[in-house]
C-alpha cells in the first residue's frame, strides 16, 4: 500500500512540475506586433498589434479570452519602414481559450464559423499530426517534422514545433505561429511575407526579427515637416545637405536600393557636404533623425 501511495505522490509531483514548465500563449501581459508586406516591397505595408484583455466571454458553454487588435500604421509612407504609429482604435480579433493540462490552444472566430477549433497542440512529437479547418492551406493536416529547443531573446528556452524547415514554418510554445499569432504556415496563393516585429512580455523582448523590436513607435505630431534640403539631385560628386539650426547634431543615414546602409553620419553644421563620387549610380534613400523626429527622402546618383 505504501508503495502505491509513494508512486502516486511521485506522479503528482511530476505532473505538477510538468504543468509549471508549460508556457502559456494567452497572457494579458504579452503583446504581439506583427507585419506583412507584398513582395518585393522594400518596406512593410501593414502591421497589427495583438494582445489579450482581462475579459472572458462564454460561447457554447466554453470560456474564452478576448484577443484584441490595433493597426500599426507607417507615419511617413515611403521606402523606409519606421517610424510607426499604433492606432488608438481597437477591436476584437478572435476569442481564444487554452487548456494548460492538455497543452492545447483553441480559437473561435468568423473564420471558424463560430465553432471551437484547435489552433495549437504543444504536446505533439515528430510524426504527429495537427488538423483543424482553421490551419494550413485550406485546412489541410499539418505534420510535425521535428521539435527543437529555441532560445528566445531573453534567454528562455521554448519548444519549437517545426512543420516545414524549408519555409521556416513552425509554432513556438508560449508565442504562437512563426508567421504571426494565428499563422503557422505562410499563405501560398500570394507573393507576400509576414512575421513578427516583436513579441514582448512585461516590456521584455521575447522574439523579433533582427532589430525590429527596436522600431520606434511615435505619434504623428512627433514627425517634423520637411525642413532640410539635399542638393544637387541628381548628384554626381558632392552631396550637400542644408538643415535648420534646430537639427544640428541630428543623424543622417543613407541606404541604397537593396536596403544596405551606405552612410551614417552626425550632421554637425547647418551646411554639410559628403563625397559621393565613388558611390554606384542608382537611387538612394535618406533619413534625418533627431530625438523623436524624422525626415525621409530620396535622391539619384549619376
List the main descriptive attributes of the protein structure presented here.
22 strands; about 300 residues; elongated; 4-stranded antiparallel β-sheet; Immunoglobulin-like; 2 domains; mainly beta; 9-stranded antiparallel β-sheet
Q: How would you characterize the overall build of this protein?
A:
This protein folds into 2 domains: 27-214, no CATH class; 224-301, Immunoglobulin-like. The protein has 1 helix and 22 strands. It has one helix at 2-21; strands at residues 30-38, 46-59, 62-74, 84-86, 91-99, 104-108, 117-121, 129-130, 142-143, 146-151, 157-164, 169-172, 176-177, 192-201, 204-208, 229-231, 238-242, 251-256, 261-266, 271-275, 282-290, 293-301. The strands form 5 sheets. Strands 1, 2, 3, 4, 5, 6, 7, 14 and 15 form a 9-stranded antiparallel beta sheet that branches. Strands 10-11-12-13 form a 4-stranded antiparallel beta sheet, with no helix packed on it. The protein is elongated.
Note the run of SSEs as H and E.
HEEEEEEEEEEEEEEEEEEEEEE
Q: What count of domains describes the coordinates?
A: 2
Largest sheet properties: 9 strands, antiparallel
Structural class comes to mainly beta
Rg over CA atoms, rounded to whole Å, is 24 Å
Average pLDDT confidence is: 80
Q: What is the helix fraction of residues, given as a range?
A: under 10%
End-to-end distance, in Å?
A: 89 Å
| Total strands | 22
Q: Given the structure, what is the number of helices? A: 1
Give the low-confidence spans.
4-19
Q: Please state roughly what percent of the residues sit in beta strands, choosing from under 5%, 5-15%, 15-25%, 25-35%, 35-45% or over 45%.
A: over 45%
Give the overall shape, derived from the CA principal axes: elongated
